[in-house]
Structure formats: C-alpha cells, structure tokens
Automatic annotation (TrEMBL), chain A:
Name of a matching Pfam family: PCuAC
Domain of life: Bacteria
Listed InterPro entries: LpqE-like, Lxx211020-like, PCuAC_sf
Entry keywords, A to Z: Signal
Gene3D superfamilies according to UniProt: PCu(A)C copper chaperone
Signal peptide limits: 1-23
Organism: Amaricoccus solimangrovi
SUPFAM superfamilies recorded: DR1885-like metal-binding protein
Protein name in the entry: Copper chaperone PCu(A)C
Automatic annotation (TrEMBL), chain B:
Organism: Amaricoccus solimangrovi
PANTHER family named in the record: ELECTRON TRANSPORT PROTIN SCO1/SENC FAMILY MEMBER, LINALOOL DEHYDRATASE_ISOMERASE DOMAIN-CONTAINING PROTEIN
SUPFAM superfamilies: Thioredoxin-like (SSF52833)
Lineage: Bacteria, Pseudomonadati, Pseudomonadota, Alphaproteobacteria, Rhodobacterales
Cystines in this chain: 70-74
Family: Belongs to the SCO1/2 family.
GO molecular function terms noted in the UniProt entry: metal ion binding
Residues reported in the UniProt entry to bind Cu cation: 70, 74, 157
Protein name: SCO family protein
Transmembrane intervals: none
C-alpha cells in the first residue's frame, strides 16, 4: 500500500470524528480517502463509497458518514449525481426476514453534534438508472443537498460489489 | 330436560367429537405435500434447464430470492455465497445454488444470466409473473412491489437463503448477513446429511 493511500485512509478515519475535523482542515487527504470537508464547524462527509455493479445491475447504494459540527440541526434533503438518472435518499429495514426499502420522504435529520452513518443495510443514497456500470477502483461524485448547509459535493470510491465499509474503517 | 333428551345430546356430542377427530386425522398433512419448495412451479433456468421441485432432488440445494434492481442484499448475499463456496472448496461440489427473481417484469432470463456471470455455481431462474408467483407461493416467500416517487418501484422480499436436503426437503434458512462460520456449518451439515 502506498504511503499516500495510508495517509489518506488515516485522514478519513480521523475526519469521521467531529472533534478532529478542525485540526485537519485544509489538508490534502489523498485521492483514495474519498473525503470532503467543509470549513471547520461545518458539516463534513467522510468514508464515502459505493459498490461495483454486477453485469446488468442498474442500481447502486451510496454510503458515507456525515458529521454535523455546525452546532445547529440540519437535514439531508436530496442528492444528485452525474452517474445516475435518478438519485434518491433511502432507508432499508429488516423485519421478520423481509428486507424493505423506503424513500426518506422527510429527508434524513443530521442533528447538531451528531455523526450519522449511511451504510449497507440502512440509510443510503440510492442511484438508479446508472448511466454506465460502476467499475471497482473508479470513483463517482454525488452532490448532497442539506437544508441549512446547502450543497456539498463529495467523491465516492467504487469498492468491491459486496464491500461493507470503507477500507480500514473498522469500528 | 328429560333424561332421554340429555342422553340424545350426549350421543350427538360424542358423534360430533368422533367426526372432528376423523377430520383432523384425515387432514394430518403428508410430510411432503405443501412443504416449502414443493409444488407445480416450472421456471426457466439460466442453464437451459427447467426449475421445478425435481431440481431440488439428488443433491443439496440452497435457494435465494432477489432481483437485479436490488442495491444491497442481493449483491451482498451473492458475495457471501462466493465466500461460502470458497470456504467449502471441494465439499461444495454437488451443492447447487439457485437465484430466483422476484421481479420477472424487469429480470429476463438472459438478464439474470449476465447478472450471475460473476457467481459461478449459482443458477438463475425466471419466467412470467404468474410462473414466478407460483414458485414464490410454493417456497412461501414474501415479495411485494413498492412504488418509488420517480414512477419506478422496488421490491420488498424475503432475504434468507433456504436450504434443501438431497431429497428436496426444506431443512432451514441461512439468515441475511448470518455470521460466515455459522452459515458454512449449516451448509457442511446439509452436504454431509445422506451423502455417500
Ligand atoms: Cu435504496
């Protein structure tokens, strides 16, 4: 693994903690980190990834960790991406062996001081009508719209088709 | 009430009880008929065969239901199946995996074959809506269309992998994201049962 990649991953990990967001403001986090930071005391998005699509699969989930250090409640209300014809905010829930997926009609609250994870099996950005297959190792961009913070564009690394989390992001 | 009337009621009650017992006895289910995976379904498989209850006989099988417009559990489960097959190695030789679509309107058999081309050992099965519905009922699998705001839809569906022994009898499920060691142990037990 290259040092740059290692450093990028470390930065991505550190940035998932709101306390550390300020210290790393302005650093170059490295291409592999798929990390975007707004100014300190703002909203940050880290560990963004999606998954390579199987042949013919026209959909993919977008996953990330959103930290709200603004001191004020916010809400993720929309998303769009040049990679997909339709992009929505979704939630998955398992009940009695049945997996249900629903649109988040009211968006996703990101309370002040909170870190909200979008991850497989739970909240996700849903990409539909993909313009092209997602290939492992590539990256796509997603523009998130927050009620207060406005638009934040972040890269998502395209990981393996069954990736569960950003590399090195074990908890 | 006279003594005669009381006796008649007793006799009637005893007769009713006997009839009820007989009905219960007659309706005691044949252990095969109506069991999960049993039924008259016939789907088109991606290997050119027809997927029927007979497809589950002669070797252990694992059957999973999904669809290609599935962002999470289907790719995750197919990835897990790959892991299980790796862990089992040669033991998995005669274990057959089936992926049955719950969304035949969007999943053609050719589309399923493409989708599964990264999953050696997994055969797809599809057909018309009516054919698939018959299979879903036979496996007692839940699937329902749910509209999305862009005019499209997604599918709620059962997320487990169903295990069948060499005689096509349902044994148990592997749950979504069940721990790998536990899933592999269940498969190993399935392969070992009646082998030889
Ligand atoms: Cu979704």
């Amino acid at each position: 693994m290259s040092n740059l990649l290692r450093a990028g991953m470390a930065a991505a990990l550190v940035l998932s903690s709101p306390l550390c967001a300020r210290a790393h403001e302005g650093h170059d986090h490295g291409a592999a980190a798929a990390t975007a930071t707004a100014p300190a005391e703002a909203l940050s998005v880290a560990r963004g990834f999606t998954r390579a699509t199987r042949p013919g699969a026209p959909v993919a989930g977008g996953f990330m960790v959103i930290t709200n250090a603004t001191g004020r409640d916010d809400r993720l209300v929309g998303a769009r991406s040049p990679a997909a014809g339709v992009t929505q905010l979704h939630e998955m829930a398992m009940a009695e062996g049945v997996m249900r997926m629903r649109e988040l009609a009211q968006g996703l609250p990101i309370p002040a001081g909170a870190t909200v994870a979008l991850r497989p099996g739970g909240y996700h950005v849903m990409f539909m009508d993909l313009k092209a297959p997602l290939v492992e190792g590539a990256r796509i961009e997603v523009t998130l719209t927050f009620e207060r913070a406005g638009e934040v564009t972040v890269p998502l690394a395209v990981l393996a088709p069954d990736a569960e989390d950003f590399p090195g992001a074990g908890e | 009430m006279g003594r005669g009337a009381f006796e008649r009621i007793l006799v009637a009650a005893a007769a009713l009880a006997a009839v009820a017992a007989a009905v219960l006895f007659l309706r005691a289910p044949d252990p095969e008929a109506g069991a999960p995976g049993r039924g008259g379904y016939a789907l088109t498989a991606t290997d050119g065969s027809t997927f029927t209850e007979a497809s589950l006989e002669g070797h252990p099988s694992a059957v999973f239901f999904g669809f290609t417009h599935c962002p999470d559990i289907c790719p995750t489960t197919l990835g897990e199946i790959g892991t299980w097959r790796e862990e089992l190695g040669a033991e998995a030789r005669d274990l057959r995996f089936w992926f049955v679509t719950v969304d035949p309107e969007r999943d053609s058999v050719d589309g399923l074959r493409d989708y599964l081309s990264w999953s050696p050992g997994v055969t797809g099965a599809g057909g018309t809506r009516a054919e698939v519905d018959e299979a879903l009922a036979a496996f007692r699998v839940y699937a329902r269309k749910v509209p999305l705001s862009d005019g499209g839809y997604t599918m709620d569906h059962s997320s487990f992998v169903m295990l069948f022994d060499r005689d096509g009898r349902f044994v148990r499920n592997i749950g979504y994201r069940e721990e790998t060691g536990s899933a592999v142990a269940k498969l190993r037990a399935l392969i070992g049962a009646g082998a030889g």
